[in-house]
Amino acid sequence: MADWKDQLKDLYKSYSTSQKNTKGTTSKFDTTSHANFRGKVGVNDTGIALTAKAAKRKQSNRAGYRYPQHLQNINERRRKDAMARHGITDIEDPYNKNFKPATQPADRRNYSASWGPPMDSEPKKKRANIYYDPWTAPSEPEEVTYVLPPAPRKQPAYKAKMVKRDSKLQFKNKLEEAIYNHPNYKKQFK
Question: Which pairing describes strands 162-165 and 168-171: parallel, antiparallel, or unpaired?
Answer without folding.
Answer: antiparallel
